[in-house]
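Slide 14.
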Amino acid sequence: MGTRKKVHAFVRVKPTDDFAHEMIKYGDDNKSIDIHLKRDTRKGVVNNQQTDWSFKLDGVLHDASQDVVYETVAKEVVSQALDGYNGTIMCYGQTGAGKTYTMTGATENYKHRGILPRALQQVFRMIEERPTHAITVRVSYLEIYNESLFDLLSTLPYVGPSVTPMTIVENPQGVFIKGLSVHLTSQEEDAFSLLFEGETNRIIASHTMNKNSSRSHCIFTIYVEAHSRTLSDEKYITSKINLVDLAGSERLGKSGSEGRVLKEATYINKSLSFLEQAIIALGDQKRDHIPFRQCKLTHALKDSLGGNCNMVLVTNIYGEAAQLEETLSSLRFASRMKLVTTEPAVNEKYDAERMVKNLEKELALLKQELAIHDSLANRTFVTYDPMDEIQIAEINSQVRRYLEGTLDEIDIINLRQIQEVFNQFRVVLSQQEQEVESALRMKYTLIDKNDFAAISAVQKAKLMDADGHLVGEPDGQGFGLGLAPFSTKPGRKSKSKKTFKEQLSFSARKEGASSPVSGKDLDMFSTSKTQLVPLSKDGDVKDMLLRDRETSSTEPLPSDSPKEELRPPRPSTPPSKPIAFQEFKNERGSEINRIFKENKSILNERRKRASETTQRINTIKREIDVTKEALNFQKSLREKQGEYENKGLMIIDEEEFLLILKLKDLKKQYRSEYQDLRDLRAEIQYCQRLVDQCRHRLLMEFDIWYNESFVIPEDTQMALKPGGSIRPGMVPVNRIVSLGEDDQDRFSQLQQSVLPEGPDSISFYNAKVKTEQKHNYLKTMTGLQQAHRK
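Slide 15: predicted structure.
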């Protein structure tokens, strides 16, 4: 078990213009707060009323931004959660004091986001920094309303409402909510979508103290599970982070609650009273029984209150004189919470399936060892212990020396060593094959000889002669130089010496003459198609040839003609947009659609290469770690046996020298692969921007085509044509057809204004927009169904 530690308690003061400077004072160390009340003279001469209070805390957050609050309160708790420690962050205080703003923040503004979204971001950032572990993240969102449990994520289509009511269940592993849905999230945007989905389902009400008062306690839980990628050990760690947003305590005389809001306030005050009783009992070392089961809130938080977790309390208070009594009550709660001790410990678990497999494998090997024990009876030493990483590195070194010819034979000790020798032979062979293939790909472009389409494209590019021999291909009698194209011989300027940029710009001009899109927008998309070619450092010739083949096989679209086009009769009812979109992609938008598909395929290819490079980097990193351990073992062995020096130079054996050389080569490979990965990531970002531009252009052209074909009246179109009765500027475009600003347009404008200041906010805003679109759609469909019933 870990060492016991006190609960951390912080106070956040809500900013106000009417701050009581004479009654509320902060300590010089910013870790204490003093309250002074004026003596009530109406009680007479003998007046024992207390007028001064002083509270020692872990920090006072006055006029603190959301960034400062998170760095002070939550960052360390979330960081330790990925190391296996449970964590709980709780916001407590009077209604309207800023608890929900501290925990969730303003979802409309990225800068004003609270502890909860920042914790999600930190978890996924730390996962990216730990490639040696396979980490899974799950989330759940629980609401306790009027002593009833509700799942805030039950509105998702794949969850649905629960038939049986949720209950709190205890087992040796802890407390969990039976019936609460837990959702796997593989990326940051998915987690934000679940958060926003739950926020829209929370119950709020309005009273005199708070316009949007939370009427329930909410617990957002992040479950983390980490398995090692490098070690085959069956041990793994788990942890959970409870982010608790308590409903605010309120005085009915001040809030003026009535009816349903009054009933809610009664349940809230009752549960908060039971919570304070549990805190007082936890702070008393002589108490044996802690009343956790008095209410659903304390029962659900049994693991968090005084358990094996890092506990942090944020007490939100007013700074006004009119709320001083409630402020004193909140500060007393914070002081009592500081008396509670927790015992954080790493949550280690064992994978039963992996453990059984390891034991079965071990048993099989031991049986084989015993079976050949009699045949090896003449040997004086046989070990049955499994080989460690240092011994495996030693066998790998012996195999390499044996292949190089510096070692005549490998001494055989037992069956395990024989199996490992063959395994290392396979490893070395695989590495050599990869090195040869990598060296060839760095120098040459490999083309399959059975791919006749690629060969014809190469011949067209004058990279192959008429006999089918590539330039530089041997002729069977020696080193053949091949046949160079006539245009590349000395003394002539080859037209093919043009840069890619010149060729592609010519292609763009060629396409501009036949594209249905006119003017500046067409030039943009011709460029977006061609700018992908120089992204590859070595010039991906095969991709270029395939694109050339597709371009040559595409028939140019007919150019605009002054003659009136013969259009099919307009249908009485416009077709649905999905059907019309398919027709548009096959006809007028075929060129833009082809460019979009081409850019998307190049983007997918870059992503695949980045994934392969990442795997190679991880493999090299593991080899570096193994080599370092073997080298450290050799150094310690040399120190134990005694070091030898010759003219001030340390003498090392051959084995240690080979390990040093191997480590140097591995580090060089690691730097090279990492640089390639950085280049690929830059290319992916560039390609993604081009794909987004193509998609936006395709949708915009489709809207124009759809309105021209099915929405705008034909007589209006005739009047708008050159020579018609309506001159440009006489009729506003928005009076012809209404193309109102949709969510995607607003999101694009938001990206232009916000993302330059906060590039990490894209997942936050993506999730926000998707949640709003979903609820707008559901609201519209509900209204249509009600209108249909009427």
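Speaker note: Residues 152 and 198 are 5 Å apart (CA to CA).
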